[in-house]
Amino acid sequence: MRKRELKNIEWSLLIIAIILCIIGLVALFSATQETEYGDFKKQCIWLAVSLVIMLGVMLIDYDLLVKISPIFYGIFVILLIAVLFTPEINGATSWFDIGFFSFQPGEFAKVFVILFLALAITKIQERGRNEINRPTRLLILLAILGLPVLLIIKQPDYGTAAAFIVATALMLITAGIDKKYIIITTILVLISIPLLYNFILPEHAKQRIDIFLNPESDPRGAGYNIIQSKLAIGAGGLTGMGLLKGNQTQLGFLYPKTTDFIFAVIGEEMGFIVAGAVIILYVFLVTKCLYVAKTAKDEAGALIATGITGIFLFHIVENIGMVMGLLPITGVPLPFVSYGGSSLITNFICIGLLLNISSKRQKTIFVK
To answer: Who contacts 226 (Cβ-Cβ below 8 Å, separation ≥6)?
Structure first.
């Protein structure tokens, strides 16, 4: 990598990601003391592995990654089909259990769907900027999205599927999709919500929505986790109860505290100040992602950065929202903070892509 490219890199993205990882590791250390810090030790290993993979992604020209993305897209579609035949874990067939590592193809598929969509959109736009608004072209893009999304819903994993949809929506907006499609889609979504709830969603998904609306209706059953989460965050106050001292965290009331509800651990034991700082860091992260998209050297780079922004934004808003009782529980991890090898590696692959894109930009072009 040339000296000019190194100077162009948006290093603040990596700094923010590492700070979030450190906060996550501190929370994991406290949350795993009864299991002799097993998940904490594993997460330290995955962090080291993630940084090495990120470095590799950063050094490979993203144009090459875009060109070969159809191959990886095909591989992960096959993996998403194969994972449906694995034993259920927590009610879903989302993981390949290979002993020392549970591999979740849906996490990694996010990256390659974004890359493949970036390739498809740029190929369409080569025929004209307005080509993206032709119905046949949009159907091609929706087919690229739809196949992995349907397979992920089949697992079922609605949270990950929603992340794909949000990322694609932002990419299409960046590509210049006509406002009429946005308006029509919004109207169709609003109309379909009651239909989905009454006729399509399975009972466990309906239950999550019902519990979101009224968690006290089943305080010892389906509403238990969210009630304990809100109690934990409320008990933390301004400065927290102290590491290893949170009642909900240490007495086993909060579950799963290392993944879905790690933000509740932070709120209870580190307090509002640290929890608020985490949210501010995420705001900076999303802002920097958008800046990379804005200053990318080409359309493909802008589309990839926007898609990654969508992935991060959905996970951040959904996880923190569900932990605070503001959104239904979907089981999506908090980026860089929640425990999980697949999630952490995927997040750092995204950071590697963003650093890669930022290294190729010509920042002086945007100075007035």
So the answer is: 211, 212, 215, 322, 325, 329
